[in-house]
């Protein structure tokens, strides 16, 4: 069989192109095998959750949207439209927390609050910042972001603060503002 050189080149070219497109299709299928979708295990609109401890309400969480990712290796719950949370201490004193976005990590007990975070105590102390973390186990807030603290003594601004949920202990960094001193 003596095929002209032109026909051999054409056959080889067609075979190579067909092989190339065939592998492309298989490659995309192989990529899909290792891809796991990042979808919530559950999705809820307008949630009103009450947390209890020994028969007493310890918190009330209200949010327009909740996405639960408990189906992942590192489970978390996301509140993409923000939260309105009320935390009660053992004497039923309340701390009010609002943010535009929140994520609660189940394994660590840390809540990441973001976007116009505002915490208000019953005594009228107000903490405002753009991002704040809450350690549920230790009942402790902290951030490295800029903050504004308003209370009966005055207004202070700073960057970096950590404090107890009842505002009794406040450790702030790089503070400025007018604060009334007891000295």
Mind telling me which CATH architecture of the largest domain this is?
A: Sandwich
N-end to C-end Cα span: 108 Å
Which range does the strand content fall in?
A: over 45%
Shape: elongated
**What name goes with the CATH superfamily of the largest domain?**
Lipopolysaccharide (LPS) transport protein A like domain
DSSP helix fraction: 10-25%
Return the CATH topology of the largest domain.
Answer: lipopolysaccharide transport protein A fold
Give the strand tally: 12
Order of helices and strands: HEEEEEEEEEEEE
Low-confidence segments, given as residue ranges, are none
Q: What is the CA-based Rg, rounded?
A: 28 Å
Secondary-structure class: alpha+beta
CATH class of the largest domain: Mainly Beta
Protein name: LPS export ABC transporter periplasmic protein LptC
Pfam families: LptC
GO molecular function: lipopolysaccharide transmembrane transporter activity
Organism: Flavobacterium reichenbachii
């Amino acid at each position: 069989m003596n095929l002209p050189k032109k026909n051999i080149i054409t056959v080889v070219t067609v075979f190579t192109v067909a092989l190339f497109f065939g592998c492309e299709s298989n490659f995309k299928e192989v990529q899909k095998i290792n891809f796991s979708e990042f979808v919530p295990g559950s999705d809820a609109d307008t949630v009103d959750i009450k947390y209890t401890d020994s028969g007493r309400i310890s918190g009330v969480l209200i949010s327009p949207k909740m996405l639960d990712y408990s189906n992942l290796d590192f489970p978390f719950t996301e509140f993409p439209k923000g939260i309105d949370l009320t935390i009660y201490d053992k004497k039923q004193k309340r701390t009010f927390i609002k943010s535009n976005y929140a994520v609660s990590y189940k394994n660590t007990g840390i809540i990441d609050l973001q976007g116009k975070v505002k915490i208000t105590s019953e005594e009228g102390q107000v903490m405002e910042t753009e991002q704040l973390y809450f350690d549920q186990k230790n009942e402790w807030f902290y951030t490295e972001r800029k903050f504004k603290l308003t209370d009966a003594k005055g207004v202070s601004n700073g960057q970096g603060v950590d404090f107890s949920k009842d505002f009794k202990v406040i450790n702030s960094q790089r503070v400025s503002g007018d604060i009334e001193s007891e000295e």
